[in-house]
Specification:
By secondary structure, the chain is mainly β. Helices cover 13% and strands 49% of the residues. The chain is built from one helix and four strands, in the order ββββα. It has a four-stranded antiparallel beta sheet, with helices on one face. Strand 2 and strand 3 form a beta hairpin. The longest helix is centred in the C-terminal third of the chain and has 9 residues. The termini are far apart.
């Protein structure tokens, strides 16, 4: 599953993990009972994306528990 330009963003928020700011977007899903989320952050001059379809609590748990080494 990819994120298309046409996908409707329903919510945006930030999670900070070990000093790293991670931008989260929730996308509209119809009838699945789950949300679709993307996370974006830059680390060591590289851009990272994580995408998942799950409950918000599960996605946030994954993001908060990423191991991000300090520079």
């Amino acid at each position: 599953i990819g994120i298309d330009v046409e996908d409707t963003v329903t919510k945006e928020y930030i999670i900070e993990n070990n000093g790293q700011v991670i931008e989260i977007k929730e996308y509209e899903t119809i009838g699945s009972g789950y949300g679709r989320y993307s996370a974006r952050f830059t680390y060591n001059e590289l851009e990272y994306f994580l995408i998942g379809t799950m409950k918000q609590e599960e996605f946030d748990f994954l993001i908060k528990n990423l191991i991000i080494l300090q520079k």
